[in-house]
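Archive entry. Fields below.
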Amino acid sequence: MIHISVQQSAIDIAAEMTRAEAAGAGAVATFTGLVRADDGVGTLELEHYPGATEAALLKVAEGAVARWSLSAAIIVHRVGPMHPGERIVFVAATAAHRGAALEACAYLIDRLKTDAPFWKRETRGAASSWVEARDNDHAAAARWE
Amino acid sequence: MTIRMVYFAWVRERIGTGEEMIDPPASVVTVADLIDWLAKTSAPHAEAFENRARLRAAIDQDFVALDTPIGAAQEIAIFPPVTGG
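PREDICTED_STRUCTURE:
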């Protein structure tokens, strides 16, 4: 089972966990990303490429399901304006055993960061700036190749 | 051949629009050629495309390298390196 969602609304962890557990295997590993208040960030806005984003996330999820024989892969990503402390991304991997679930969970978030067309803009007071891509994100994604 | 261009993040802001229809000459073969040609069409395009190392592209919603031929592309996207997650 693969579930992909790119949404404006808040991420409902309980509903996503229910979905992950319904796949019925022995282990569920999850990762939740929260908006950081780096240097006084007040608002974080996420722009994306509709259509291409969902396709990229589906490819990442399909890659994880095939590699670790998952019974479920879930990727939920918020877009639009959000604030420090709010959930920005949630991924889950359901597998027969914890090793596969934990590795697949790391793969989902690592690949999402480099393969999906999202862009972050931070606002601090009256100033706003686009977030720069980080080289260590590419190193994290490359370790799965 | 008419192509729908789409732009995101600061590329979109610098150009001043999220999308436009273009009709490049036959001499435009690759995405890089297209960027060179667009950069000559206006000062905002030139500013958006001044640093090629900071540009990424997609042809018909698939990520591609800038030296990829545009072929029969219907939609080409130009954008900064991605920063999701």
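CURATOR_NOTE: The two ends of chain A are 23 Å apart (CA to CA).
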